[in-house]
Each structure stands twice: as structure tokens, then as C-alpha cells.
Specification:
seven-stranded mixed sheet, two-stranded antiparallel ribbon, 7 helices, 9 strands, 26% strand, globular, disordered N terminus
Length: 198
């Protein structure tokens, strides 16, 4: 693993910083991969201010993990368990190195598989589910929301992040499951919604 971490650091393309909790200020490296855009710092600050009371001892799912910053920041604040799903092997390699270098092996579990494949076989629910797929992948977002709700995989909150052009499709899907956002924020064309459990 040491050689892996050294190689990742040597070739890293980008970094994102953890905003809060015991790992505040630590950096996560991630590759220059299509569709990978970590949640902005100011958006994460708002999100985790919303979620902070619910994070202590929580079980969280970061379904389209990418850099892993949402799941790792949840762990930094106090989540008991974080499962991260990333289907791109190169991105997963960076994420595994971040988990290792931050000493989060006992909290964070990484699966290199597709989001829908994971949800289809998952049976244990999560307190909080983070859904932040590539913005071009509206079908992935729709399928993820449907599976999470149909399979009863969330107890408290779903966090959705998507492009403004997807807003009508997302609103229609939420209506199908009789859901609506309890809190919202936006940054440029990005929309961030917090949804109460299905």
C-alpha cells in the first residue's frame, strides 16, 4: 500500500480539502476523470451544517464516490460507518489511498462496482445516502433514487446533487415516490437538495 500511495501522490491531477471535523484541512487526491467533480467546499459546508446533528454514529452511503469527499467528510464529523461505491478503477485506486492515508480503514469500506449493481444486492439500510452522479447521467440518478426507495435503503436523508437542466426530471421522479426536498441550496448551475427518508 505504501508504494500505491507514493504512486498516487506522484501522479495526482487534483486535490480537494476536507472542510470540517477531525480531518479538517486534510487533502484528498483524485484523477482527472470525465464526470468527476467533487462537491464545492461552500456547498459541503451547507450540507454538513444541515446533517451534523444526524451524523454521529450514522451509517452512510456515498454511492457515486469519486474523490470520496462526501463520505470521508461524514466520517470526519462522526459517522460510524461509510460505504463508498466507485465504478472507475483508476478513481477507486486514488480513493483507496486516501482512506488508507487518513487511517479510515475501520470506518470506510470501498466497493469498486456500479451503483445499481450494489443497490440491487444491498439489504441493510443506511441513515444517510449521498447521490451525486456525473451530471450527464440523469438515468443513473433516476435509477439510484428508485432503487434506494423501492428497497427501503435509507432511514433519514437522501442528499441529491444535480445540474439545473435535470431539475424537472428529478422533481418528477421524487413526485413518483411522494418525496420533496426539505432543504435546498444552489451554486451556479448546481442544485443540492436534502430529502427526508422514503
Amino acid at each position: 500500500m505504501f508504494a500505491l500511495k507514493k504512486n498516487v501522490r506522484k501522479n495526482k491531477a487534483h486535490e480537494v480539502r476536507v472542510n470540517s471535523g477531525r480531518l479538517r484541512g486534510r487533502k484528498l487526491a483524485f484523477p482527472d476523470a470525465e464526470g468527476l467533480r467533487p462537491t464545492l467546499g461552500r456547498t459541503r459546508e451547507t450540507l454538513f451544517n444541515w446533517l451534523r446533528p444526524n451524523l454521529v454514529d450514522a451509517r452512510c452511503l456515498d454511492l457515486f464516490a469519486g474523490s470520496g469527499v462526501l463520505g470521508i467528510e461524514a466520517a470526519s464529523i462522526g459517522a460510524r460507518e461509510v460505504v463508498l461505491i466507485e465504478n472507475q478503477p483508476q478513481t477507486a485506486t486514488y480513493l483507496a489511498a486516501s482512506i488508507d492515508s487518513l487511517g479510515l480503514q475501520d470506518i470506510c469500506t470501498l466497493h469498486t462496482t456500479g451503483a445499481s449493481d450494489y443497490l440491487a444486492q444491498c439489504s441493510q439500510p443506511f441513515d444517510i445516502v449521498f447521490l451525486d452522479p456525473p451530471f450527464a447521467a440523469t438515468a443513473l440518478l433516476e435509477q439510484a433514487i428508485a432503487l434506494v426507495c423501492q428497497r427501503g435503503l435509507v432511514r433519514q436523508h437522501i442528499y441529491l446533487e444535480f445540474d439545473q437542466q435535470q431539475e424537472s426530471a428529478v422533481a418528477a421522479l421524487l413526485s413518483t415516490f411522494e418525496l420533496s426536498p426539505s432543504k435546498t441550496t444552489k451554486a451556479g448551475s448546481t442544485r443540492s437538495w436534502l430529502i427526508s427518508a422514503c
